[in-house]
Amino acid sequence: MTTPDVTVVVAVYNTMPYLTECLESLVNQSIGVDRLEVVAVDDGSTDDSGRELDRFAERYPGTVKVIHQANSGGPAAPSNRALEVATGRYVYFIGSDDYLGRDALKRMVACADEHGSDVVVGKMVGTNGRYVHQALYKKSDPDVSLYDSALPFTLANTKLFRRDLVEQHKLRFPEDLPVGSDQPFTIEACVRARKISVLADYTYYYAVKRGDASNITYRANHLARLRCTAEIMKFTAGLIEAGPRRDAVFKRHFTWELAKLVQDDFPALDRETQIQVCAGIATLADDYFTEPLRDSMDVKRRVRIALAQRGAVTELIRAIEEEAAAGVPPRPQVVGGAPPLLLEDGRAYLRYPGFRDPALGLPDRLYEVIGESVPRQLAVGTGLVSAWWEQQGQELAVALSVRVPVTGETDHAVIRLANKAMPKSADKPGARRLPVGTELPAPAGELSRTTTDDGTGTLLTARIPIRPVRAKLGVRAYLDVAGSTYEVPVRTLDRPLPLARRWREKAPYRVSANANAKGRLVITTAPLWESSSSGERSRLRHLMSRVKRKLTR
């Protein structure tokens, strides 16, 4: 019998009706059934999954092989059982609720054969709301490293592995991990591999989130996920010595698995569970949270890990809840939401709970904005506090008081009027970080800066002369933060807007301040009346002259 090119391993437990689409996508692969072996292990299913597997085995004898066994509690044991009987040159793993693109196996096998790859990663996408990290799939690359690419954020076993590599190093799945059992297998395979290739030119794998979210990833509780992550990190530490390479892999676990334990659902846990979660994170942080790894992370996750490491449960809950409150458009005068920025000595700090708290003794570096963008933090709390018209003779000006969530070096904050709409790509609720060298509009009028009474922001008060020309001007705050300039549209929120005004010129003009469809402040100036002919304009001037003479009698 000819050796198949690839054995596809399918661990199955109660995945009907998704299982049917999965199996159809396998037997219809363009590589052909004669080059394919499917080993499906029914892990004690109680629905129709076992019968569906048997139906496919009858339809495709010699290609689809089915093993039935008692339930083991996870995908590791059935995957190991399948590896014992696999005969293909390569082995590929697929979730029994997922499916493949028709050319997936043919393309991956061809890539492995051409480049001598031990591991081939084909582009994955999520369906039905399933999240799949996409950074690795920006371009195809025949030779990537585990240590300087996005591969650590793509550690599922849904890849093509050379079976000689698997058997040479006795790679198997740890059967005591209900969650994440594929990570030790994948990490070791990537550490041992001579070459790892990425294919981003085609959608190879469709990861499905079941309608009832019953995928095992979504069912595990906080403590189970913590225990599994600890085991994975311990295993990885035994493979990769301390240093930049280990940090590159563990960045995934700190920013993903561990950070997910202290997100929005953490405050609702009972206190004992909260304490246990923090204690578990502290143990891992003490062992593996190096300074270079800390500085490579975004400040929000970095702070949460550090607060958990200190056992500062109260401060951690406050940080999570205040951040969650940022999702609701805040009133500018209300404290809450994303923390305000402190600009000091050329550095920017986000003042999350615990910042410069002597009882915690956390270093400022944890709270510093280091090479990352902070548009959301700037936008939260930026908005119109009050506005009014001022007129001196023929000069009309609008005075605006705007709150921005920045304190410290407030000379880095100004108000400007922009006569162009923000590009659609940047027209979002948050601020926009401008490319280096962007030409800014001139500062608008006279500006004064004062710290808010609560000390969490700065009030920018500007008196802006309004010229009688046709214009539609967006009011925006421009802030210099940590070496970057941000453009922040000023939201009107529920502040009272100044009334529309008009003033006398040779041709009368009107001016108004209104909220646009996105709730942002826009100043509009235009002729009070418009006409298309010089005769009409002449008659209008004559009429206005007569009215003026009557009014002055």
How would you sum up this structure, described in words?
With 553 residues, the protein is α+β, with helices and mostly antiparallel strands. It contains 15 helices and 25 strands. It has helices at residues 18-27, 49-59, 76-85, 104-115, 163-168, 182-192, 216-219, 222-239, 244-260, 271-288, 291-296, 299-310, 313-325, 375-379, 534-552, and strands spanning 6-12, 36-43, 64-69, 90-95, 99-100, 119-122, 124-127, 141-144, 160-162, 196-199, 205-208, 341-344, 347-350, 383-392, 395-404, 406-408, 413-418, 432-433, 446-451, 458-466, 471-481, 484-489, 501-503, 509-515, 521-527. It has an eight-stranded mixed beta sheet, sandwiched between helices. Strands 17, 18, 21, 22, 23, 24 and 25 form a seven-stranded antiparallel beta sheet that branches. The N and C termini lie far apart (113 Å).
Structural class: alpha+beta
Helix amount: 25-40%
Q: Largest sheet, described in full?
A: 8 strands, mixed
Spatial sequence of strands, sheet with the most strands: 3-2-1-4-9-6-10-8
Poorly predicted runs are 327-336
- The fraction of residues in strands falls at 25-35%
The CA-CA distance between the termini, in Å, is 113 Å
Radius of gyration, whole Å: 31 Å
Number of helices: 15
Q: Which whole number gives the mean pLDDT?
A: 88
Strand tally is 25
Shape: elongated
Oligomer: single chain
